[in-house]
């Protein structure tokens, strides 16, 4: 476990409210000259159930080359096997030659960094916890529910099916978000085709099920932390949607829990990280696994990432889901009853506590 500072009794609710009312996020704390992190951010850094706290092991998250996936049947069949194996055994993989130009990736990272590093007064215009707003800046979506806050700020927006008007985006990243979103949507559709075929289903099965009805983007910013041993950039969690496409800079810090060990997901220039969400785990009857992951804080430099989550709805829905019937057999009966995705996610998260 991490070494912790002695924590006196204090009014946590007041600290949370004052932080939220500042509308300045974690970056604002640093800009104000803070040298010790507020108590609300302090929590155990490492999972006591993990065999190792170092993330040093022989394991490496799978890397899949998508070159030829559209025009070479033999190559496509090989890629489908690789994607299926990664989803069954890891829940995570990286892709290269995915079709999104390096210039677009770089400009998206620069746009998110530019937003978070601009003058605080400019950012405050977007600060809100009403996520029905099309474009919102906030620090810690679950600030008032989590046991400890995490060391990051986020800019988020939905892009499918009802994108914001371009004028609603911050000027610093306005031009790139539409292009990047278009490119990620195309890649996501390709991935769902590969996943469908990997399951032995029709190529459009997952898309037709509604797995990509909504695409929600979040640009995270993790400032340097003066006491990284006391907090996390993102706490241990698994994603709730069907699939997430993650663009990250080259700083590092993302870790995946594999065979009860924390594995560093080392950034690779031009690569995108893909991971399975709880919703996909449910409808594949646990064939594809949604794996827990976290982000470490660091003292040296800021980290930027851009997550694009594919799902069916941003808000609670009454639509019911259960495992895909074509995947079920007498030897492989359904592991989940028909329920809303919110109920499925709550059940799976409860199992992992």
Automatic annotation (TrEMBL):
Gene3D superfamilies: B-lactam Antibiotic, Isopenicillin N Synthase, Chain. PROSITE patterns: FE2OG_OXY. Residues 211-314 form the Fe2OG dioxygenase domain. InterPro entries: DIOX_N (IPR026992), IPNS-like_FE2OG_OXY (IPR044861), IPNS-like_sf (IPR027443), Oxoglu/Fe-dep_dioxygenase_dom (IPR005123). The keyword Iron applies. Keywords: Iron, Metal-binding, Oxidoreductase. SUPFAM superfamilies: Clavaminate synthase-like (SSF51197). It holds the Pfam family DIOX_N. Its cofactor is Fe cation. GO terms for molecular function: dioxygenase activity; metal ion binding. Belongs to the iron/ascorbate-dependent oxidoreductase family. This is Fe2OG dioxygenase domain-containing protein. It comes from Vitis vinifera (Grape). The lineage of its organism: Eukaryota, Viridiplantae, Streptophyta, Embryophyta, Tracheophyta.
């Amino acid at each position: 476990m991490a070494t912790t500072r002695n924590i006196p009794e204090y009014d946590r609710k007041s600290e949370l409210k004052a932080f939220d009312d500042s509308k300045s996020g974690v970056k604002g704390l640093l800009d104000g000259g803070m040298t010790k992190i507020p108590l609300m951010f302090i929590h155990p850094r490492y999972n006591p159930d993990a065999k190792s706290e170092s993330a040093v092991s022989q394991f490496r998250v799978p890397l899949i080359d998508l070159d030829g996936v559209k025009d070479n049947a033999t190559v496509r069949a090989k890629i489908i096997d690789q994607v299926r194996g990664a989803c069954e055994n890891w829940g995570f993989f990286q892709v290269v030659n995915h079709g999104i130009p390096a210039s677009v990736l770089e400009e998206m990272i620069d746009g998110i960094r530019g937003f978070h590093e601009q003058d605080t007064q400019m950012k405050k215009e977007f600060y809100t916890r009403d996520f029905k707003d099309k474009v919102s800046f906030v620090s810690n979506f679950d600030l008032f529910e989590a046991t400890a806050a995490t060391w990051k700020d986020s800019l988020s927006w939905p892009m499918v099916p009802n994108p914001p008007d371009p004028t609603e985006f911050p000027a610093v990243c306005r031009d790139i978000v539409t292009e990047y979103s278009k490119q990620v949507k195309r890649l996501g559709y390709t991935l769902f085709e590969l996943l469908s075929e990997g399951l032995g289903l029709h190529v459009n099965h997952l898309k037709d099920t509604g797995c990509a009805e909504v695409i929600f983007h979040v640009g995270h910013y993790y400032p340097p932390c003066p006491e990284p041993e006391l907090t996390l950039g993102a706490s241990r969690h698994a994603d709730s949607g069907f699939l997430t496409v993650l663009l990250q800079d080259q700083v590092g810090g993302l870790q995946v829990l594999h065979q009860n060990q924390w594995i560093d997901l080392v950034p690779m220039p031009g690569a995108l990280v893909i991971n399975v969400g709880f919703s996909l785990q449910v409808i594949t009857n646990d064939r594809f696994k949604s794996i827990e992951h976290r982000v470490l804080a660091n003292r040296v430099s800021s980290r930027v990432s851009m997550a694009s989550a594919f799902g069916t709805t941003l808000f609670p829905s009454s639509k019911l889901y259960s495992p895909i019937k074509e995947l079920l057999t007498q030897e492989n009966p359904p592991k989940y009853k028909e329920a809303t995705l919110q109920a499925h996610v709550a059940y799976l998260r409860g199992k992992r506590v």
